[in-house]
Amino acid sequence: MNVIVIGAQWGDEGKGKVVDIYSAKAEYIVRYQGGNNAGHTLVVNGKKTILHLIPSGILHPGKVCIIANGVVFDPTVFFEEVESLHQSKAFGTALPNEVIRVSERAHVILPYHRTLDRLREEYAAKGAGKIGTTVRGIGPAYEDKAARRGIQVIDLLRPELLRTKLERAIEEKNILLKHHFKAPLIELNPLYEEGLKLGEKLKPFVSNVRALLQEALRGQRPILFEGAQGTLLDVDHGTYPYVTSSNTVAGGAMTGSGLGLNIKAKVIGISKAYTTRVGTGPFPTEIEKTEKETAERIRSVGAEFGATTGRPRRTGWLDLVALKYAVEVNGLDGIALMKADVLNGFDFIKVCTAYRLGGTTLYDLPSSIEDLERVEPAYEVIPGWLSYDQSQTKHREDLPSELRDYMRMIEDYLGVPIVLMSTGPGRDETLIFSDPFGQ
Ligand code: IMP
């Protein structure tokens, strides 16, 4: 069996930790969309590692970590991560290029993508329409891909083609920079020289990842697909336009890796016991204004600050309407429930079970972003639970009864089981109820 791990909310659900745990069972771990806008925080033996691009499975020796075609790939960030993993001896006796493979077809984030991302956000900040991006160049790189003027990893290895492709790619951008943003123009030569250098360094890592994964499938080697961001940031199914520029839903694992729909996989959605969001955009259960103290308590206990940008995350109660939507658009087989311990000691917990819009009650996300901005969450208020000794909690029955009731309520509403529950940041602070690889 193979497993696809998906963020079921707005990202930052704790996918890094779940991927790290599931990696023990996988032989191949694949990042298939997004780029270094992701930030996966892992704590192993008390040591914290934040990865933005390289799959979180890298901290397990002997696995092959893959960056597939659907990723937008920043070579500079990649080499920084390789270096830092090397320093912390994460590769053991293996060479980095023996355990990390990069798709020839992945699109490259170039310096001008970062520049455009920043300029657009600065420009938008003067009026409406700021997305609150991570300013890593993700959107502009995907734009170029869709506009058919992107530079792919394989182009960096072909000096004779690279120059012409870059020339074509920057032509329109320079018009935009000159006339719209009044910013310095992109110079071809330094860009070309740097591209060649990066290509040379990248060569040992580059491979036909699709073929490699087909081979793995044929040999029944378990593959773990590591989603980035979250369902509600999906460019098709999220809260558009306040989304990222890729398909974060489970279907993205197929298009982003080149495998077909006949692959046998379980899809696990990661959700916190509450909700957070970074950046702009609708968030029905947000409590920043209405329940300021609770919002601050969740943020400080849950350390809710962006792993990539350090921005404070907006916080709110669990939204079961949005989570049910995630169950449907991803075809989730199970939920991994994260950070319930952050809610320890609350007198009561609120859970959103419907939206009210005008005189109607909704049980599904409205398609219009303007409607989603206006919905009022309908809450059920349930009793909270006292702090408990997490180190002595090994089974579901060991959890406080109010927390078990909360979990049952979530499962009943969603119609899928909670397969894993995290009780703290460390690898060992995890309760595993069933193993998706074993099914
Ligand atoms: P971009 O992906 O940098 O273009 O940003 C688009 C939106 O996605 C912004 O609201 C970001 O805050 C959000 N976003 C991007 N990556 C992540 C992530 O890994 N976690 C949470 N939000 C993210």
Question: If you had to describe this structure to a student in words, what would you say it looks like?
Answer:
The chain has 14 helices and 20 strands. The chain is globular and about 65 Å long. The model has no long low-confidence stretch (mean pLDDT 94). It is of the alpha/beta class and 439 residues long. The strands form five sheets. The chain has a ten-stranded mixed β-sheet with strand order 9-7-5-2-10-1-11-15-19-20, sandwiched between helices. Strands 14, 16, 17 and 18 form a four-stranded mixed β-sheet that branches. Helix 4 (111-125) runs parallel beside helix 7 (159-181) and helix 7 (159-181) packs across helix 8 (188-202). It is 33% helix and 20% strand. The chain has three domains: 2-103 and 206-267, Adenylosuccinate Synthetase, Chain A, domain 1 (3-Layer(aba) Sandwich); 107-201, Adenylosuccinate Synthetase, subunit A, domain 2 (Orthogonal Bundle); 272-438, Alpha-Beta Complex (Adenylosuccinate Synthetase, Chain A, domain 3). The structure holds inosinic acid. Residues 11-12, 37-39, 131-134, 136, 138-139, 228-229, 233, 242, 244-245, 278-279 line the site of inosinic acid.
